[in-house]
């Protein structure tokens, strides 16, 4: 056995539980509460909340607000748990998901999340333009929207701090507008212009109204997305988020009561600025709606480029877009990402339809919320010692939030839900194929660890022929030099059993660190060749004792290797020790497959396999099983597997062939029975005549216990001489404590 090539091991850094942020960064009020609340109290509240009440009435509106806020609140709990467990950097929801569920899942959600937030900018600037044109009909809505979008982007480019500070003034304007609304008076019924027919035509179904309203409560993302700019994300995100959710819920539950007592249904349906008409000072509503829409647009255009920046820095985006990860100034402002966000927002502004944009955002945000809840729920459920959030949330609550998101998406529009799922799945598959290498760990290892533990504890320890699987241990030495052994074992185990590639190295030649590097190098080599398998590098005084030690100690419960595949040795001075190793492997109740590789031919075209068969007893059943496994593998699919037996004369041919056909039919292996008539020829002559043109030959080995040590050595030498000049040949020795005949016949 020869040492595997070395490779540097890349271990992910330990997970941080001390949550720190940027020195001198934003606080809870300015960095989370303010942008979150201003996004919640935005364009939907001023321009579409009356429409919501007019469509579904007071009770229906309160249900929509409560249901929407419940989903947001459950997601807020999950966000708080994740934010208090890990250091949340730039990227907000994307960062949290990628560090919990893996970079592929994070990217699959992060890219749609970026698009949703870019469209949010358009949602708010279109709403602003609609409000301006409502007050000044001579203005062009599209022109106002475009100019406003550019102005908001310019503000974001200057500084996140400047943008945040500007929102304090806007919050004052919103407070003033709400006070004016509370002190207002009902409309004069005589001023209502809508007819009953108009009222009927304008109504929308409950879930369509829900889809339009839901973006109003997605403002919590505005604070989360500023994670990289916060002084203490672990403290600010939970406190600021819950405060914004609570204040927003109180306001949204109070407003419908005011609206139904101040305006008739027709006015609520057809007048986007009905709040202005029922307020004490109508222009205060204009100030509020202008301020709210602008602040929401600012919040979105601050968040979207930061998600894009995080995606680029993690290598999720193509190399041609890596420049989007650059930041400028002390605040690390993503100016390139802001310009790209501006371009997408301008396209959406050109469309200019709030009722068209809002449902699209709803689907993307619900998808993000659902995955955030799954991330927190899975982390908590697994109970990993590394997951120690200061804010404890039971896994059932997080998963309830995820179920709520999915249910609402389906109720809104099942087809749109399917489309959103397809988008996420396509992005996930594309990212997985890229083979992204993350420098951080994620929860997926914990998931597989839990599933593996549960499975191992439930697998019976006694052998069961019905559920037998080929678990191969390949003693390959350096994989690059003896690749045919691995390729052959992979053909036997594909999707059916476990494959372990083992290398024995001298005890004193390598350190533990170097062995780990060698194992990593072999894993990478297998992955490049498309082989899924485990890797083991074992120190031992010599390859033979190392192999025996592996067989004795390697494995876990019922998943210990049951078949050992080894190469033949051409060195005569090692034959005695080699045969002793085979005897000990067999005595350890392992099946042994010895590969005598015809180096000049390899496996040929993988079109024909010959099994020299002497009956179901002994090795015969295992030979048929191996033939079946090989035939159904990818590399050998469609190969002609022949089950060959020899009879002394022609009179026995038909009877033997009929018997073989019965065996093939009963075992359902798909092999082709062939009967050769000796007619005085020796077996060795028939063997070479029949199999010289094949690609692989399988033959059984006699039980070593029936021969003794010296006898087995002589027998192995004899088998080597008899197969000299043949294609690659496998010598198969069944040793497992199982009746392979039952594996084949299964109750027959």
Care to describe what's here?
- The chain has helices at residues 28-40, 43-47, 49-83, 93-101, 103-135, 141-158, 160-182, 196-202, 206-213, 220-224, 233-262, 265-270, 274-278, 282-313, 335-351, 354-382, 395-412, 414-434, 444-458, 483-493, 512-528, 543-553, 575-587, 620-631, 653-667, 683-691, 708-722, 740-745, and strands spanning 472-475, 499-506, 534-540, 563-567, 591-596, 608-612, 640-647, 672-677, 696-700, 729-733.
- The protein folds into three domains: 28-187 and 211-434, Up-down Bundle (Amino acid/polyamine transporter I), CATH 1.20.1740.10; 470-567; 598-729 and 738-748, Rossmann fold (3-Layer(aba) Sandwich).
- Strand 4, helix 23 (575-587) and strand 5 (591-596) form a beta-alpha-beta unit.
- It is elongated, with a radius of gyration of 36 Å.
- It has 748 residues and is an alpha/beta fold.
- Residues 1-20 have low confidence and may be disordered.
- It starts with 27 loop residues before the first helix and ends with a helix.
- The longest helix has 35 residues, at 49-83.
- Helix 3 (49-83) runs parallel beside helix 16.
- The protein is built from 28 helices and ten strands.
- Helix content is 59%, strand content 8%.
């Amino acid at each position: 056995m020869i040492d595997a090539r070395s490779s540097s091991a890349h271990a992910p850094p330990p997970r941080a539980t001390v949550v720190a942020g940027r020195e001198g960064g934003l606080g809870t009020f300015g960095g989370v509460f303010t942008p979150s609340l201003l996004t919640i109290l935005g364009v939907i509240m001023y321009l579409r909340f009356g429409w919501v009440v007019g469509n579904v009435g007071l009770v229906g509106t309160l249900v929509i607000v409560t249901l929407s806020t419940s989903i947001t609140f459950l997601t807020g709990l999950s966000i708080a748990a994740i934010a208090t467990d890990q250091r949340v950097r730039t990227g907000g929801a994307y960062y949290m998901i990628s560090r919990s569920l893996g970079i592929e899942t994070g990217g699959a959600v992060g890219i749609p999340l970026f698009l949703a937030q870019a469209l949010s900018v358009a949602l708010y600037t279109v709403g602003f333009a609609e409000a301006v044109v409502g007050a000044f009909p001579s203005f062009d809505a599209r022109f106002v929207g475009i100019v406003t979008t550019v102005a908001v982007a310019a503000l974001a480019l200057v500084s996140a701090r400047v943008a945040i500070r500007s929102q304090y003034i806007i919050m004052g304007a919103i407070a003033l507008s709400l006070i004016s609304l509370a002190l207002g008076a009902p409309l004069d019924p005589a001023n209502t212009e809508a007819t009953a027919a108009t009222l009927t035509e304008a109504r929308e179904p409950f879930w369509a109204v829900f889809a339009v309203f839901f973006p109003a409560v997605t403002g919590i993302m505005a604070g989360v997305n500023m994670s990289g700019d916060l002084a203490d994300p672990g403290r600010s995100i939970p406190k600021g988020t819950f405060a914004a959710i609570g204040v927003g819920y109180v306001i949204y539950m109070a407003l419908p009561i005011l609206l139904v007592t101040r305006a008739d249904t027709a006015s609520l349906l057809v007048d986007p600025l009905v709040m202005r008409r029922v307020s004490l000072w109508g222009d205060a509503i204009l100030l509020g709606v202008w301020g709210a829409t602008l602040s929401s647009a600012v919040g979105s255009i601050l968040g979207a480029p930061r998600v894009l920046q995080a995606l680029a820095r993690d290598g999720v985006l193509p190399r041609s877009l890596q420049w989007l990860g650059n930041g400028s100034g002390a605040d690390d402002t993503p100016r390139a990402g802001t310009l790209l966000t501006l371009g997408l927002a301008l396209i959406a502004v050109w469309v200019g339809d709030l009722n068209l944009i809002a449902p699209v955002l709803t689907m993307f945000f619900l998808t993000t919320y659902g995955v955030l809840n799954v991330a927190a729920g899975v982390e908590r459920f697994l109970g990993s010692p590394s997951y120690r959030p200061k804010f404890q949330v039971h896994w059932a609550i997080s998963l309830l939030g995820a179920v709520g998101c999915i249910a609402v998406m389906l109720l809104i529009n099942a087809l749109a839900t399917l489309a959103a799922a397809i988008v996420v799945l396509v992005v996930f598959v594309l990212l997985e194929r890229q083979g992204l290498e993350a420098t951080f760990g994620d929860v997926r290892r914990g998931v597989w660890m839990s599933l593996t533990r549960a499975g191992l504890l439930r697998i019976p320890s006694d052998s069961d022929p019905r559920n037998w699987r080929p678990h191969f241990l390949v003693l390959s030495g350096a994989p690059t030099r003896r690749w045919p052994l691995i390729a052959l074992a992979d053909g036997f185990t594909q999707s059916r059993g476990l494959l372990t590639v083992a290398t024995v190295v001298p005890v004193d030649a390598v350190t533990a660190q170097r062995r780990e590097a060698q194992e990593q190098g072999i894993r990478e080599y297998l992955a490049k060749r498309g082989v899924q398998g485990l890797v083991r590098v074992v120190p031992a005084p010599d390859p033979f004792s190392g192999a025996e030690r592996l067989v004795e100690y390697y494995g876990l419960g019922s998943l210990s290797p049951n078949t050992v595949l080894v190469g033949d040795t051409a060195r005569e001075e090692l034959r005695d020790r080699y045969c002793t190793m085979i005897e000990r492997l067999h005595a350890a109740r392992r099946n042994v497959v010895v590969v005598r590789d015809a180096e000049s031919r390899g496996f040929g075209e993988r079109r024909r396999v010959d099994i020299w068969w002497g009956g179901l007893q002994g090795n015969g059943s295992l030979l048929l099983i191996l033939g079946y496994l090989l035939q159904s593998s990818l590399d050998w699919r469609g190969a002609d597997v022949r089950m060959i037996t020899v009879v002394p004369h022609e009179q026995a041919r038909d009877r033997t062939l009929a018997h073989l056909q019965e065996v093939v039919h009963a075992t359902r292996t798909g092999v082709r029975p062939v009967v050769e008539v000796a007619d005085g020829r020796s077996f060795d002559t028939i063997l070479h005549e029949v199999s010289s043109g094949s690609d692989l030959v399988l033959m059984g080995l006699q039980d070593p216990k029936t021969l003794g040590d010296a006898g087995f050595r002589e027998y192995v030498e004899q088998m080597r001489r008899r197969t000299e000049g043949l294609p690659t040949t496998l010598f198969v020795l069944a040793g497992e404590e199982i009746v392979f005949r039952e594996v084949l016949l299964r109750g027959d």
